[in-house]
Amino acid sequence: MIVAPGSASLENLQAIMQGEVLDLPAGWQAPVEASVGALAKRIEQGEALYGVNTGFGKLASQRIGSADLAKLQLNLLRSHASGTGALLPAPVVRLILALKAMSLARGASAVRPVVIEALLALLRADVLPAIPAKGSVGASGDLAPLAHLSLVLIGEGEAMVGGAVVPGAEALRRAGIAPLALGPKEGLALLNGTQVSTALALAGLFTARMLLRTALASGAMSVDAARGSDTPFDPRIHALRGQPGQIRAAAALRNLLEGSAIRESHRTGDTRVQDPYCLRCQPQVMGACIDQLDHAAQVLQREANAVTDNPLVTAEGEVLSGGNFHAEPVAFAADNIALAVAEIGALAERRIALLTDPALSGLPAFLVREGGLNSGFMIAQVTAAALASENKSLAHPRSVDSLPTSANQEDHVSMATGAALRLVEMADNTAGILAIELLAAAQGIGFHRPLTSSPVLEAALALVREQAAPWDEDRLMAPDIAAVKRLVERGAFAQLAEGI
C-alpha cells in the first residue's frame, strides 16, 4: 500500500494495524535530504541548536562538543527508554512504526532517508519493537515508548518476532536489517512526537465504532424483545432537531427493525403510550456518540499525518523550536472516545435491566420461566451494572490532569497516552455488556415465538444461538457471555449495522 506522507486515510491506518505493508511514493527522499542538508549548514555555522548540540529539557543550556554529537543521540535513546508495564499489542506497534516513518518523511525533521527506510523495513519484516505501555505524559512527545522503539533500530532493546520477544540485535539479524548509527538530531526526532498516543487513540476509535454498530443491533433486538415502538425512530422527529449523528442512528434502527412481525403484532391495541428512555432515546444518545467519534476521527487523522517533533527544519533552512509534540488534541480526542464508549455501555445496561424487569418488559422475571426455582439473567444484569459503573470511573477526563516534568521546564503536559491506554479496558467492559444484552434480547424474542423479528435481527439472533442455547433453566452463564463476547470483539454483529 503506497501512501504519500501527510495523506493517510483512516482506512489506510486501520489496514496497517491489520498487517498491511506501508510504502512511500517515488521521490519522497528529496525533501528529507534537503532538511538534512539545511541542518548540516546550521551546525557548521556553530549555532546552538536544541537537541543537536545542546542537552535536552532543563539541560538545553548545556552545549555539546562536535566530537560528542553522535554520543548525545545514543545517550538520549538509552536514558529515555524508561517505560514500564505490559507491552503494547502488535497492531498498535505496527501503526506507531508507520506513523513515525510518515511523519519523518514529511521532510521537516532533518533525519536521513536511511532512518525512515529502517522504520519501514521493521514494518515490512514484522519485527515489532517491544514497547512498555506506560511512561509517557503526552508532551515532549511520547518519549519513553518511542525510545524503546528506537533502540531496536540501533540493535539494542527488544523486539517481538514471530510472537517471541528477542534482543534487538537478534531481531535485526533475522530480518537482514543493518543497525543504524545515528546522526545529529536523529535520536531526538525519533523520540519527539505523538505517534504512540495517536496510535493508541486510533485503535480505541476503531474499536469504539465497532461497539457502537454492535449496540445499534443489540438495541434494536431489545426493542423487539420488549415489544417496543419504532415510532421514536421516525425520520421526521430527527429532521426537526437536525443533529447528524442522531439522524444516522435513527435510520440505522429503522433499517434493523424493518420487516419485524413482532412490531406489526402490537401496532394496534398496545396501551403503552411511550417506551422508557433506554429504548425511545437511542437515536439521541447513540447519535451523540456518533458525532463525538466522528469529531475524534477528524482530529486523529490530522494528527496521524502531522509533523510533531521539535525543533523543525523549514524548507528555507530555518530551525524552529516549538511545541508540536504536545498531545493535547489527542488527549481531548481520547477523552471524547471514552465518553462515547461509556455511554454505549451505560445505555445497553439499562436495556438489560428493562428486559429483566417484568413490570417494564412484560416478559417473565429475569427472562426465565419458573422464576424462583431459576434465577435466569438476574446476576448477568448485575455483571453488566458492574462493568458500566467501572466505565464511568474510567471515563473521567485525563486531559484535565497535568504534572510538571523535567524540573518544571515541561510544566504542562497532556496525559494523552494514558487517556488512550484506558480505552482498551473500557472497550473490554462494553463488549461484555453488549454480549449480555445480545443474550438477554435473544431470550426475550424467544418468548414471542412463533412471531419473528426482522430478517437482519433474526440473523443476529442466529449468531447468538450458535454460541448459546435458549435459557430454559439455570446453567453456567459465564461461558455463554464469553462466547458471545468473542463474536462482539470480532465485529460479527457490527456488520449488521454497516454504514455508521
Automatic annotation (TrEMBL):
SUPFAM superfamilies: L-aspartase-like (SSF48557). GO terms for cellular component: cytoplasm. The keyword Lyase applies. Belongs to the PAL/histidase family. It catalyses: L-histidine = trans-urocanate + NH4(+). This is Histidine ammonia-lyase. Contains an active site 4-methylidene-imidazol-5-one (MIO), which is formed autocatalytically by cyclization and dehydration of residues Ala-Ser-Gly. Pathway: Amino-acid degradation; L-histidine degradation into L-glutamate; N-formimidoyl-L-glutamate from L-histidine: step 1/3. It is an enzyme of class 4 (lyase).
